[in-house]
Design brief:
Helix content: 10-25%
Radius of gyration: 15 Å
CATH topology: 3-methyladenine DNA Glycosylase, Chain A
Order of helices and strands: HHEEEEEEHEEE
CATH superfamily: Methylpurine-DNA glycosylase (MPG)
CATH class: Alpha Beta
Largest sheet: 9 strands, antiparallel
Length: 189
Amino acid sequence: MKVEELPPLPRSFYERPTTLVARELLGKVLVRRFEQVELRARIVEVEAYLGERDQASHARRGPTPRAAIMFGPPGRLYVYLIYGMHHCMNFVCETDGVAGAVLIRAAAALDDETHPRALSGPGKLCAHLAIALAHKGLDLTARESELVVVDDGTRPRIAASRRVGVEYAGAWARRRLRFYVPGHPSVSR
DNA sequence: TTATCGATGGTA
DNA sequence: ACCATCGATAAA
């Protein structure tokens, strides 16, 4: 079955513990649909943000206007602007009412198989896929969505480390909630 | 190779 | 005032 015919991952995929979803997202393929063309990229690096108790998570202050979507139903897109110039995309996890999201940090563009392009870092990834604040709330599980995720059967190895850029989060900064495909050239840092 | 810095704006 | 960043530049 060709990638473009694969169905989007269902709501049930996202409606599980955030850390498990994060690990299983490695190797999955982002499909970004425009009017005429579509872009595909394989996820190689993610971070889990666990909700209100996680002092590195935007959900740590409760359901503020920005972070409320993290408390809502799973399978939706959470986009925020960082440092005034870069967008970051996250997939909402856990059941409705419980906060949790996975930050997509890096992917490998599949549009030119012979010259795979590294999309290393959440800002670069969003720029390449043209994802911005307007896409916040998008349903990742609907067939017609501008962005969906599909499973083509790839099962990469998984390595874990501390999350990037969350030194302020005390003990939570030390948790190994960043997951990546070891040795993959598109992984950041 | 590592270190530092400026750009730029939403968020609380 | 503080960032879930990036690219350029400088130091070594």
